[in-house]
Specification:
Layout (H helix, E strand, L loop, with lengths): L5 H4 L5 H23 L8 H10 L11 H18 L3 H8 L9 H22 L10 H30 L1 H18 L15 E6 L5 E6 L3 E6 L5 E6 L5 E6 L1 H4 L6 E6 L3 E6 L1 H4 L11 E2 L9 H26 L6 E4 L7 E6 L6 E6 L3 E6 H6 L7 E7 L5 E6 L5 E6 L3 E6 L4 E7 L5 E6 L5 E6 L4 E5 L4 E6 L6 E6 L5 E6 L3 E6 L5 E6 L8 H31 L5 H23 L1
Antiparallel strand pairs: 1-2, 2-3, 3-4, 4-8, 5-6, 6-7, 7-9, 10-11, 11-12, 12-13, 14-15, 15-16, 16-17, 18-19, 19-20, 20-21, 22-23, 23-24, 24-25
Helix pairs in contact: 2-4, 3-4, 7-8, 13-14
Length: 585
């Protein structure tokens, strides 16, 4: 009987198999590091990031690395040290992080808790100067009403979500609706296009009922358009500098006969416009600067009426604007200078369920809450009641938005930090550092659990308010983000950028669905500018040569004296400078 030893039953792995195992282990380790890095909070300031890298024995800057890449490298370095269990005391002293050696679920939980501790420590350092002022009696009463209303709305919202999740039929209908929505989004095409004005547009907003579109421009005027045809309806004058934002009043916006909206400007003012009297055709003293665009007659053909109306408007616009600039009559109902220093007012938003409340953010590091109707009840044309003045940001406040329940408001600043405030208690709940540059836009999901922040760093971050951290970063565009928003039901994310495109993403998996291109961009590209300047230089050289040839012939004929030749050359230089200025404009 042959007996086979146990050692002969097993064979050693080949060199290729061992090498493949090593590669698999390295790839798994890199994957674990990147997964862990997404949960780690690191400093935002460039100087702090470099300091921590030096303390950890890493180069402060690599070739071709910007600030965002440097922060990502720091996250990966810290994640690798956590997994390997290296220098735990140094990590704890620098960032408040604890190391875990096993890549398990408990490790992820401890990493999340340590990240939250680090975020809390950083927020306490960044926002230690938050100042709370005593609430006036009117604000206390409004806070009580908001609390009662928001509790009921939150209960109904959670109940609807619970019914959808627990019901298989409702869940199936919801998925089918989302699928059809995504399929329809892929077929979106340009419907209408309109020339907005002589200066670039800086703000645009649909009315809640979808009947009107309000736009603000660098020319300080605000125009209201018909949403179905993009035909101009009214032009409002009142600001002295570029318009930074526009916002429609939620409840009154639902009635097309009662449009009320607000605008902010770089001149430091916020204005509330009431178009109800203009829509009804009432002409009063304060309404003279509001220009109503001529409408076509019912007895004329549509094309003929548009031609006659446009030709009449072109001639009347210049006379009207000139008269407005001379008279400077207000066309608004409430106009307030937000800050005594005249700081830029960056954005505004009406409360979704209490339309008399208007919130604005300002470059004096603060945001404010106004009562619009209180001034109207006192028949004051140029004043609003300031209910709340709240500071706390370390840089200029640049954006804000209300929670769908109306209980919270989020503000963003120029340092890339977002702050969540509870209107009911007046306290700051938490700061959300993450962007490396200014936050330009904020939008809440309809379910209230997530919020978008768009930034000048070309990214859009999705924050989970339940976990109090960023759950996803969308590298949306190749240029700064001008605006980002959720759709009405929260199933789509739309982003707009200075690269001249709009992009649509799914809010469930953040998958890119469609890119909409049509705008020419904020300005000419660098290559185009260089080409224009080169052509201009060639034309100038040809003109100079032609003039010199003419002057030489005239001198030979003794027609011009030397002094006259110098005068002609000086005139030629002036003309060249004027041509350069025209081309640059």
């Amino acid at each position: 009987m042959n007996i086979v030893s146990d050692s002969s039953r097993y064979q050693d792995l080949s060199a290729e198999s061992k090498l493949e195992q090593l590669r698999h282990a390295e790839n798994f380790a890199q994957f674990e590091i990147k997964r862990r890095a997404r949960t780690i909070t690191v400093p935002t300031a460039p100087e702090d990031v470099k300091r921590v890298l030096r303390e950890l024995g890493q180069p402060a800057t690599l070739f071709g690395e910007d600030h965002a890449d440097r922060r990502e490298r720091l996250r990966e370095v810290v994640a690798g040290m956590q997994i390997r269990g290296e220098e735990t005391s140094k990590l704890q002293s620098l960032l408040g992080l604890e190391s875990t050696t096993a890549p398990s679920s408990s490790a992820a939980e401890s990493s999340s808790s340590s990240s939250a501790a680090a975020g809390t420590k950083q927020q306490a350092t960044a926002h230690k100067d938050v100042f709370y002022s005593p609430a006036v009696e009117q604000l206390v009463a409004i806070r009580g009403e908001i609390a009662t209303d928001s509790f009921e709305r939150a209960r109904q919202r959670l109940q609807r979500l619970r019914d959808t999740v627990e019901s298989a039929e409702a869940n199936m209908r919801d998925r089918e609706h989302v699928y059809q929505l995504y399929q329809h989004t892929k077929d979106v095409v340009l419907n209408l296009s309109q020339f907005g004005g002589d200066r670039p547009l800086s703000a645009i907003k649909y009315s809640p009922d979808g009947h009107f579109v309000a736009t603000g421009s660098f020319g300080a005027e605000i125009k209201v358009w018909d949403a179905s045809s993009l035909g101009p309806r009214f032009t409002y004058f009142g600001h002295n500098d570029r318009v930074t934002s526009v916002a429609w009043q939620s409840c009154s916006g639902g009635n097309s006969d009662h449009p009320v909206f607000a605008s902010t400007s770089a001149d430091g003012h916020v204005i509330v416009w009431d178009g109800r009297r203009h829509m009804r055709g009432e002409a009063q003293g304060d309404d003279r600067p509001v220009q109503q665009q001529p409408s076509s007659s019912s007895s004329m053909d549509v094309d003929e009426s548009e031609q006659s109306s446009s030709s009449h408007t072109e001639g009347a616009n210049s006379q009207f604007v000139a008269s407005v600039l001379q008279s400077r009559l207000p066309s608004y109902h409430h106009k307030v200078k937000v800050s005594d220093s005249g700081a830029v007012v960056s954005s505004c938003a009406f409360h979704p369920h209490f339309p008399q409340l208007l919130a604005v953010s300002c470059h004096d590091y603060s945001w404010r809450l106004y009562d619009v109707d209180h001034a109207a009840r006192r028949s004051e044309q140029s004043s609003m009641t300031e209910l709340l003045l709240q500071d706390g940001h370390t840089k200029e406040a640049s954006a804000l938005a209300f929670h769908p329940d109306g209980s919270l408001v989020m503000t963003g600043d120029a340092s890339g930090v977002a702050m969540l405030w509870d209107i009911r208690s007046g306290q700051m709940i938490q700061g959300f550092p993450g962007h490396v540059k200014k936050i330009s836009s904020i939008s809440f999901h309809a379910q209230g659990f997530q919020v978008l922040t768009g930034s000048v760093d070309n990214t859009v971050k999705v924050w989970d308010l339940r976990k109090r951290k960023c759950c996803y970063t969308i590298p949306a565009h190749s240029n700064l983000i001008a605006d980002c928003t959720y759709s009405s039901l929260g199933e789509l994310i739309c982003t707009a950028s200075f690269d001249g495109t709009l992009k649509l993403f799914g809010s469930r998996d953040f998958r890119h669905i469609r890119t909409l291109a049509g705008h020419s961009g904020k300005e000419l590209q660098e290559l185009q500018v260089l080409q224009v300047l080169q052509v201009l230089q060639v034309l100038q050289v040809l003109q100079v040569l032609q003039v010199l040839q003419v002057l030489q012939v005239l001198q030979e004929l003794q027609v011009l004296q030397e002094l006259q030749v110098l005068q002609v050359l000086q005139v030629l230089q002036v003309l060249q400078v004027l041509q350069v200025l025209q081309v640059l404009q």
